[in-house]
Amino acid sequence: TKVGFKKPYSGYYEPGKPGYNKDNVHSGLQSFRLVNAGSMCASKNKNWASFSMNLGPAINDSGKTKPLDVSDYQYLIFWAKTDNKDGAMVKVLFRDVEAKSYLPQATVSMVPPELNNSWRQYTVNLSKLRRQVNLTKLVHIGFGFGKDAGNPPGTVIYLDDVAFSGFKGEIKKVSHVPMPSVFPQHWPYGSVAATGWLIFVELNLNPFALN
User: Which Gene3D superfamilies does the record match to this protein (predicted)?
Assistant: First the structure.
């Protein structure tokens, strides 16, 4: 990404970006801006667009991701809004370590389905995915926002405060690093938060991918 770009493009949305407006950030100073089929986006002239998060570090040089056990969490939550006056749609994508390709094994359409011009929290009930994806070995979550999700070209979506919540297991301290009293708002790559110590220690994300 280049700061000099004047048209909206997908990527980190933070102070210094042209047209930065704090209203497009739910908390902290940053969010993710997702632009469907913009002139400077890889999704131009395609029916799909997605934003991806790998949930662990890469394993050596294999390109594979270390899986993350989120089975003790009940929900994936996130906050989202859109600039589109007619609203926008988003689908949440999941993939585990056993996936045969990069395609998601589970896709969740949000209810209520439409994003609007105000920030709204969305919740995915992870228990409903157990037959589709192995939550003990999750490697990837993503957000589909292209034409196949119901969005016209130029749709802009802002995404913030993505978190696993509803921890129902035993909190395990798996590191000697002191537990922080307040989890960093944007650690380590943008607006990704975690509500349990186990996830905080292990959630060593790779930089996000925008397709």
Answer: Galactose-binding lectin
Q: What is the CATH number of the domain that holds 119?
A: 2.60.120
* Cis peptide preceding 57, ω within 30 of 0: no
Q: What is the pTM (predicted TM-score) of this model?
A: 0.75
- Could you give the number of structural domains in the chain? 1
**Residue type at 17 in one-letter notation:** K
Residue 3 is assigned to a structural domain of this protein:
no
**3-class SS string, 103-148:** CCCEEEEEEEEEECCCCEEEEEEHHHHCCCCCHHHEEEEEEECCHH
Pairing mode of beta strands 120-125, 11-13: unpaired
Q: How many CB atoms lie within 10 A of CB 122?
A: 20
